[in-house]
Task: inverse folding
């Protein structure tokens, strides 16, 4: 069974950083890309970026360049996203989702909530 | 960025009724490789999104065949033939042809 297990919810101070994880199981980690998606409260979905673990290549939505940093650890089948200089606008649920070239994001993590508050 | 406009924003259906959701793109989604990277997702209440349709009309793994997708270029449609109670939630179209990947604003399906 394909599973993407995300790390827990976070409460962080404005100006701080947070790093969340997405541990993959049930498939070959390097056969798929990993996307990250933001869902602000009561809002729709925004694509943050993608990492291809096989070749450690990243692609970002211009809107999130400088805000998000994507990495992956092939030894532990885990993808990471770090968000920096957090503001209230970063309070949201963040999802990881795997995809291949054609079939789209066919498996999603359960989501991790980030709340930015002093 | 490519803008995906979904209509209607909200739809209400009885069990067994057929429903169609439209997704109109601000640019053609036909890629130079011949593929059209248009997807449909369902996000049930308090759940993660799940893939329904990829490449306009191909059914995702395990997705019931009451779901179907059609369209080309800039106009796409998701049809549910015989709504069931578990189909309530928000439906999103997504394009992956142009960078950045973008989502439609969503269509909320309510069950009467």
Result:
């Amino acid at each position: 069974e394909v599973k993407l297990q995300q790390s827990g919810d976070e409460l962080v101070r404005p100006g701080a950083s947070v790093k969340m994880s997405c541990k993959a199981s049930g498939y070959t980690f390097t056969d798929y890309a990993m996307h990250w998606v933001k869902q602000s409260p009561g809002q729709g979905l925004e694509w943050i970026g993608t990492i291809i673990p096989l070749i450690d290549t990243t692609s970002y939505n211009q809107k999130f360049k400088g805000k998000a940093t994507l990495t992956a650890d092939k030894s532990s089948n885990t993808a990471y996203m770090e968000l920096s200089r957090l503001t209230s606008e970063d309070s949201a649920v963040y999802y990881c989702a795997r995809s291949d070239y054609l079939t789209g994001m066919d498996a999603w993590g359960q989501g991790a909530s980030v709340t930015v508050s002093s | 960025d490519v803008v995906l406009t979904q209509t209607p924003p909200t739809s209400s259906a009885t069990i067994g009724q057929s429903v169609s959701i439209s997704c109109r793109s601000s640019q053609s989604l036909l890629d130079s490789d011949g593929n059209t990277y248009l997807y449909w997702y369902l996000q049930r209440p308090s759940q993660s999104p799940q893939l329904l349709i990829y490449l306009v009309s191909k059914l995702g793994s395990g997705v019931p065949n009451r779901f179907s997708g059609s369209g080309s270029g800039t106009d796409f449609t998701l049809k549910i033939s015989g709504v069931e109670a578990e189909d309530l939630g928000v439906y999103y179209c997504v394009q992956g042809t142009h960078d950045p990947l973008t989502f439609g604003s969503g269509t909320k399906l309510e069950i009467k």
